[in-house]
Design goal:
Blueprint (H helix, E strand, L loop, with lengths): L4 E6 L6 H5 L5 E5 L9 H13 L6 E4 L6 H10 L6 E4 L5 H13 L6 E4 L5 H4 L14 E3 L4 H6 L13 H17 L2 E4 L8 H14 L3 E4 L4 H8 L4 H16 L5 E4 L2 E4 H13 L5
Parallel strand pairs: 1-2, 1-8, 2-3, 3-4, 4-5, 6-7, 7-8
Antiparallel strand pairs: 9-10
Family: Belongs to the HpcH/HpaI aldolase family.
GO molecular function: citryl-CoA lyase activity
Protein name: Citrate lyase subunit beta/citryl-CoA lyase
Length: about 280
């Protein structure tokens, strides 16, 4: 499943579901957690269940409530048997959280929904970012957030005055990136909160691609084209990657090759294959 962009939409706003599906996002996240007030959660579950029962124009993920809450049990009862394409798990704390979600899905009869943990929202979660490898073949990726964690530790903010993350949250972002790659799954960048500054969003998303993220979450449909563009490699980069892959395919016994006047070896081949995968091309 290609996940350049994942667009959140509040689960209690069904009138927005069609617009979200038509945004161009690779997946839509129907939210039952933070964007839904407690009094509206029951109605949100009904709306999300209804969406899962209709024809899907785009993969539908559902962000459930944390696994240690009664709301999580209600969420799984409402949607677990309806085969969402994925479940976004807030406040995940390593492999055991994922096992719990997978067990609940299987008890509901679901054998296919992917699981995407938001893996940095508690202090304990930060120390579990290396735990996700091998836990399940249903892991869609790992993503992170910079909002709940500051609140959990009493920090005043996660950002400098110019919008950059402060040092603790740059560290958390980096650990998420490496944790995802260690687990062999997609690293998904967190949301960009300023929905008006699309230029800054583009710069942020391109930084994510540069650093090794393969997609990003969005909170407004206008952000989706910018994110998709940032995480879609340029044609010349795709052509260069294809040349590297083809060169090694033509010389399978070679450890290193000369191409266009420079030496290439296994790391170049790995980077080229990753870029082709990001472009949605076969390797």
């Amino acid at each position: 499943m290609r996940l350049r962009s994942l667009l959140f939409v509040p689960g209690d706003r069904p009138e927005r579901f069609a617009k979200a599906a038509a945004s161009g996002a690779d997946a839509v996240i129907l939210d039952l957690e933070d964007s839904v007030a407690p009094a509206a959660k029951a109605a949100a579950r009904d709306a999300v269940a209804g969406a899962l029962l209709t024809e899907r124009l785009v993969p539908l993920f559902v962000r459930v409530n944390p696994i240690d809450t009664a709301a999580f049990d209600a969420d799984m009862t409402a949607v677990g048997a309806l085969s969402p394409d994925g479940v976004v798990v807030p406040k995940a704390e390593g492999a055991e959280t994922i096992r719990t979600v997978v067990r609940r899905l299987e008890l509901a009869g679901d054998r296919s929904a992917m699981v995407l943990p938001v893996a940095t929202e508690t202090p304990a979660a930060v120390f579990r970012l290396g735990d996700y490898g091998g836990v399940t073949d249903r892991l869609a990726g790992i993503t992170w957030g910079a909002e709940d964690l500051p609140a959990a530790i009493g920090a005043q903010t996660s950002r400098e005055e110019d919008g950059r993350y402060t040092a603790p949250y740059e560290l958390v972002r980096s650990l998420t990136l490496f944790g995802a790659h260690a687990a062999g799954v997609a690293a998904i960048e967190t949301v960009f909160p300023d929905i008006r500054d699309l230029g800054a969003l583009g710069a942020y998303a391109r930084r994510g691609l540069r650093d090794g993220f393969s997609g990003m979450m969005a909170i407004h449909p206008a952000q989706v084209p910018v994110i998709n563009d940032a995480f879609t490699p340029a044609p010349d980069a795709v052509a260069a990657a294809r040349r590297i892959v083809d060169a090694f395919a033509a010389a399978p016994a070679a450890g290193a090759l000369q191409l266009d006047g420079r030496m290439i070896d296994a790391p170049h081949l790995k980077q080229a294959k990753r870029l082709l995968a990001l472009a949605g091309e076969s390797v």
